[in-house]
Design a protein that fits this description.
With 635 residues, this protein is of the alpha+beta class. The protein has 4 domains: 4-233, Heat Shock Protein 90, CATH 3.30.565.10; 239-372, Ribosomal Protein S5, domain 2 (2-Layer Sandwich), CATH 3.30.230.80; 405-506, 3-Layer(aba) Sandwich (Rossmann fold); 510-546 and 564-634, Up-down Bundle (Four Helix Bundle (Hemerythrin (Met), subunit A)). The protein is 37% helix and 19% strand. The chain has 21 helices and 22 strands. A 9-stranded mixed β-sheet has the order 1-6-5-4-7-3-2-8-9, with helices on one face. Strand 2 and strand 3 form a beta hairpin. The longest helix has 24 residues, at 347-370.
Length: 635
């Protein structure tokens, strides 16, 4: 039925592309010249999606397919006119949808995408591949593109014609269009006329789109006839036996469902039969999408029921921390009218989710074991997301822990390349704990005063600077029988080491030292729990430490950002390095200078622990006063 908006729309109007579309068009035209043939893959993929959507809508509205025609894709080339057309008889578009879909990039991560572009054609080409080019790939080979479309269920008078020469504007008008679906006509550039050759197009269809589940038809070769023939296998790839599918076909299918021009790192194709019957095809991408950190962004597997497409992003079948996994799930048990709400309540779905999660993790485990170099790249892209599973998925924690990678003091590089197994293999004689330190970054962790004593004893420390680290270390406490120990909290247990001095040699604080601690504590009052000697420090004069059961400052900030700012703050203890010159100087100072230096040491320690001070101005004033006194004494 024609809507009021369509009736009121002008016959034709010229509009400007949104700024991000103009930028993307310019980049593609100049950056993807060496990959021009991808336009056909992208446009066929879009046509396939349009057919899938119509078949799904027809489950509840059978009249949408009342013409009885088989869903398919048609390609024609005209050498004389220099054109190529790609047609589908899928869901089609209204005038408003053509304006919305073809004039704007409605995709999360757009701003970040453009922010990462460098101007280097080769590097930008790879980024564009990650972002996905879709319809706009037509302009790689065409200097003018026409789109003719009619939405399924709408009358012929509600058709739309869209046209642009990628010059910043496009024209859209309402037309009579008898055919349901969409036809895209490419008016090829002079240097792209090779694509008007039917044999060339057939070759590209078989290379890039042989797996498309709908028949791709072209006029019969060498015949002046209106008859067409199917030029692809027209069989859903996941329904074929694994032994019949080549790596190239698996990679081509991945590009089809993700619009990612990069090949996947690995995949797993599996058919389950018995109590439950379903087929899954899961992929590990090589590059993170731009919306990876938007937890409400579309994610999940493409869901089919008995080969019928149901939805694009069925997030119920994999946990949030595996949101980067792409693929297809085809179930023989779910009802065709299944909805997202039903998926959330279905016991069969929960069982499939558990099995698919294990299968996806097995894929990651295999990559880490068999192709460690590839896994290093995978970890850089997805490691922080995978870490979330340590806190979210207790059932699979033992499988996740060996996959984790960290920076550590074993290497001067901050690259994530140390596994927990690596750490355990290098532990010192008698060492029973895995030491780590939390900070705002790996570089800050490496320079943390909390690990000075550990490093001096040759004990390796994991440097945790990812934003998810405070959370996961609060959820998991041991690996391979070794306890995790935060280097900034509690007793470090250094007397457990084989080279530790006998306990009988340990000395209590001397009366003079105890008096110093009490005098410092009196200055700081309720700000601290106590002052005590430190076995953590070798270079820094002081640090603040908390008990093992207290929240770390990083975790407290994370909870505050999540709206839990009402958590009571525990008191820290001030640990001091008695071998530091400033501690030797303290007892010699008068009361005012003693108090000023004590507060300065406390503020320095709080700055190290929290990364900020309650009163930075007072800290600077106190520091400047001491510097002036020092300068005066020197002069």
């Amino acid at each position: 039925m024609t809507t009021d908006a369509q009736t009121a729309a002008p016959a034709a109007e010229t509009r400007g592309f949104k700024a991000e579309v103009r930028e993307l068009l310019k980049l593609m035209i100049h950056s993807l010249y060496s990959h021009r043939e991808i336009f056909l893959r992208e446009l066929i993929s879009n046509a396939s999606d349009a057919n899938d959507k119509l078949r799904f809508l027809a489950l509840s509205e059978p009249a949408l397919l009342d013409d009885g025609s088989e869903l398919g894709i048609w390609i024609e080339a005209d050498k004389d006119k220099g054109t190529v057309s790609i047609r589908d008889n899928g869901v089609g578009m209204t005038r408003e949808e053509a304006i919305a879909h073809l004039g704007t990039i409605a995709k999360s991560g757009t701003a970040e995408f453009f922010g990462k572009l460098t101007g280097d054609a080769q590097k930008d080409s790879a980024l564009i591949g990650q972002f996905g080019v879709g319809f706009y790939s037509a302009f790689i080979v065409a200097d003018r593109v026409e789109v003719l479309s009619r939405r399924a269920g709408e009358p012929a008078s509600a058709g739309v014609r869209w046209e642009s020469a990628a010059d910043g504007d496009y024209t859209v008008e309402t037309i009579d269009h008898a055919q349901r679906g969409t036809t895209i006509v490419l008016h090829l550039k002079d240097d792209a006329k090779e694509f008007a050759d039917a044999w060339r197009l057939r070759t590209l269809v078989r290379r890039y789109s042989d797996h498309i589940a709908f028949p791709v038809r072209m006029p019969k070769e060498g015949e002046a006839t209106l008859d067409t023939e199917v030029v692809n296998q027209a069989q859903a790839l996941w329904t074929r036996p694994r032994s019949d599918i080549t790596d190239e076909e698996y990679q081509a299918f991945y590009r089809h469902i993700t619009h990612d021009s990069n090949a996947p790192l690995a995949w797993s194709h599996n058919k389950v039969e018995g109590r439950r019957e379903y087929t899954s095809l899961l992929y590990l991408p090589a590059n993170a999408p731009f919306d990876l950190w938007q937890r409400d962004a579309a994610r999940g597997l493409k869901l089919h029921v008995r080969r019928v497409f149901i939805m694009d992003d069925a997030e119920q079948f994999l946990p949030m921390y595996l949101r980067f996994v792409k693929g297809v799930l085809d179930s023989s048990d779910l009802p065709l009218n299944v909805s997202r709400e039903l998926l959330q309540k279905d016991a069969e779905v929960e069982a499939m989710r558990g099995a698919l999660t294990k299968r996806a993790l097995d894929l990651v485990v295999r990559l880490a074991k068999d192709e460690p170099e590839k896994y290093t790249g995978f970890w850089k892209e997805f490691g922080q997301v995978l870490k979330e599973g340590v806190g979210e998925d207790m059932a699979n924690r033992d499988k996740l822990l060996p996959l984790l990678r960290f920076a550590s003091t074993h290497s001067e590089s901050d690259d994530d390349n140390v596994s927990l197994a690596d750490y355990v293999a290098r532990m010192k004689a008698g060492q029973k704990r895995i030491y780590y330190v939390l900070a705002e970054s790996r570089a800050a962790a490496r320079s943390s005063p909390f690990i000075e004593g550990l490093r001096a004893r040759g004990i390796e420390v994991l440097l945790l600077g990812d934003r998810v680290d405070p959370w996961i270390t609060g959820q998991w406490h041991e690996f391979d029988g070794k306890q995790l120990q935060d280097a900034s909290r509690g007793d470090l247990g250094l007397d457990e080491l084989a080279d530790a001095p006998p306990k009988a040699e340990a000395k209590d604080a001397t009366p003079e030292q105890q008096a110093l601690f009490e005098r410092m504590a009196a200055v700081l009052g309720d700000s601290i729990e106590q002052v005590r000697a430190s076995d953590r420090l070798t270079e820094s004069p002081a640090c603040l430490t908390r008990d093992d059961n207290d929240l770390s400052e990083q975790m407290r900030r994370m909870l505050a950002a999540a709206g839990r700012g009402d958590l009571p703050a525990g008191k820290a203890s001030l640990e001091v390095n008695l071998s530091h010159p400033l501690l030797a100087l303290l007892p010699k100072l008068g009361d005012d200078d003693f108090a000023a230096l004590t507060r300065l040491l406390f503020d320095q320690s709080r700055l190290t622990e929290q990364g900020q001070l309650e009163n930075p101005g007072e800290f600077v004033r106190r520091l400047n006063q001491l510097l002036v006194k020092l300068a005066t004494a020197v002069v």
